[in-house]
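User: Hi! I'm working on a homework problem where we have to compare a predicted structure to a textbook description. Could you give me the structure for the chain below?
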Amino acid sequence: MQDDAAGDLPQDGAMNQRRYKNQPVAAGSVLRRATAAALRRRGFGEGEVIARWPEIVGPKLAALTTPEKLQQRRGDLAGAVLIIRVGGAAAVELQHMAPTVIERINGFYGYRAVDRIKLVQGPLPVPEKPRQVVQRALSASESAALAARTAGTKSTGLRQALERLGRGVLGREETPSEDH
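Assistant: Happy to help. Predicted structure tokens:
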């Protein structure tokens, strides 16, 4: 009976070769798959509209707006309603620019994906402030502890690389940037 169970498994570690690659994987490809379900629930089949919003509507308008949801009307294959969150008085400006924005979005999709825009006034997500990274020198005790942790590594090159990495990580101090 064990032979049958072993016969069902891929031979020579084929499963591990498929699952684990020998090369690093781009974070963007992992994030795209991880966020796909959440974006689909909001009506965005692809996250490109959200990711490239500043390109589509321009940086000035993108700073005042954010796409919320793409609502497909029942029975329509095209002509959805794009719900856009607008901050403050920009709603009036966006209302006048609606035909241009619809044209840009449809040009991005390559077909008449959006028929109408619905504006929702409210606070926009607060962009994360960039942090300034300051590198400090390690104290004598931190240096000694780092050397002790890497001492067991036989390869000199690897040991030196680990010590450089350790100095970089241990000596890193992040502070909020003052200029934003």
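For your comparison, note the following. The chain has two domains: 36-121, 131-176. Confidence is low (pLDDT under 50) at residues 1-7. Good luck with the assignment!
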